[in-house]
TrEMBL record:
This is Malate dehydrogenase. Belongs to the LDH/MDH superfamily. MDH type 2 family. PROSITE patterns: MDH (PS00068). It holds the Pfam family Ldh_1_C. It comes from Tamaricihabitans halophyticus. The lineage of its organism: Bacteria, Bacillati, Actinomycetota, Actinomycetes, Pseudonocardiales. Transmembrane segments: none annotated. It comes from the Bacteria. The keyword Iron-sulfur does not apply.
């Protein structure tokens, strides 16, 4: 190892996604084969032992890039000096819980984690929130880290992006890498809008190649938007390996850049582009370069897309207003 290790904090490390994620981070897939990592695992006290078990397994892999593992139930220790924060641990929706209850319960997690990031993270810290409701949890954390640039707080819609890519490739009988410039707009929820109007399939416009408005409206969009629920129904548990894979993709692309002639989807604080109210964390098409992302500008939004983007953004505004009333942002 010649480079200094990058500190990667993973919350909810003993959970399902944590188990699918940590080995890939430690093997170099998050940051590349030349970058050593030091893992910081944050768990609630009852799950620290399970996290220790995972750490034993990580040790047993003898990953050359793994410079060390710290395990704690203290957010301040977990985020001290961290460069990359993967915020996976969240409170799942329980029986009889309303959306507002869920947001309040998650406020109890993401507020102190935002404060801990503000207090001690490295200057270049980059945060990905995976734990649901991811966009608004990211907003809560960001609101409590006033000294960190807001742009460093992102929410995961890469899983939705990857899902859309495969659905479209299967419809057209092409490979996933033949598809470029897909966009997920809005919230990581059933209101999200997967947009193929600017996507390209082997250089041709995807919507024109599909040429099937009914498939788009009645199959493609609901399949992508409700895929999480379909996985829960089929597995009896929410997506874990695919979510971990998307987290790896999100950070890898953010740090290493998008390919020429392509873009990706990230939940990021809106700068007002495309009529999305400033400050809410909404998914946009972005290009990445030099460790920074930029919203793709100048896309023409047709009426079909406008309605759907507006509906998902309205849900995000409602979530923001709920957490505002709870004094969480
Ligand atoms: N954005 C996405 O695309 C996406 C996709 C799949 C799942 N998710 C979400 O990711 C989250 C995690 O999923 P999972 O399957 O790993 O759940 P899980 O229940 O298996 O694991 C969650 C872990 O978080 C821990 N945890 C709870 N509160 C914590 C806190 N304050 N600090 C640290 N750890 C804490 C729990 O002890 C548990 O080990 C869920 O909210 C899920 O809905 C998001
Ligand atoms: O955990 C969930 O509710 C679903 C998850 O966000 C997913 O998209 O698979």
């Amino acid at each position: 190892m010649t480079k200094a290790p990058v500190n990667v904090t993973v919350t909810g490390a003993a959970g399902q996604i944590g188990y699918a994620l940590l080995f890939r981070v430690a093997s170099g897939q998050l940051l590349g084969p030349d970058t050593p990592v030091r893992l910081r695992l944050l768990e609630i006290p009852q799950a620290v032992k399970a996290a220790e078990g995972t750490a034993m397994e990580l040790d047993d892999c003898a990953f050359p890039l793994l410079a060390g593992i710290d395990i704690t139930d203290d957010a301040n220790k977990a985020f001290a000096g961290t460069n990359i924060g993967l915020l996976v641990g969240a409170r799942p929706r329980g029986p009889g819980m309303e959306r507002g209850d869920l947001l309040e319960a998650n406020g109890g997690i993401f507020k102190p984690q935002g404060e801990a990031i503000n207090a001690g993270a490295a200057e270049d810290v980059r945060v990905l929130v995976v734990g649901n409701p991811a966009n608004t949890n990211a907003l809560i954390a960001q609101a409590h880290a006033p000294d960190v640039p807001a742009s460093r707080f992102t929410a995961m819609t890469r899983l939705d992006h990857n899902r859309a890519q495969t659905q479209l490739a299967q419809k057209l009988g092409v490979g996933v890498s033949d598809i470029k410039k897909l966009t997920i707009w809005g919230n990581h929820s059933a209101t999200q809008y997967p947009d193929i109007f600017h996507a390209e399939v082997n250089g041709k416009n995807a919507a024109e190649s599909v040429n099937d408005q009914q498939w788009l409206a009645d199959q493609f969009i609901p399949t992508v938007a409700k895929r999480g629920a379909a996985i829960i129904e089929a597995r009896g548990a929410s997506s874990a390996a695919s979510a971990a894979n998307a987290a790896i993709d999100h950070v890898y692309t953010w740090v290493n850049g998008t390919a020429d002639g392509d873009w990706t989807s990230m939940g990021i604080p809106s700068d007002g582009s495309y009529g999305v109210p400033e400050g809410i964390i909404s998914s946009f098409p972005v290009t990445c370069s030099g460790g920074e992302y930029q919203i793709v500008q100048g896309l023409e939004i047709n009426d079909f897309s406008r309605q759907r983007i507006d509906a998902s953004v309205a849900e995000l505004v409602e979530e923001r207003d709920t957490v505002r009333k709870l004094d969480l942002v």
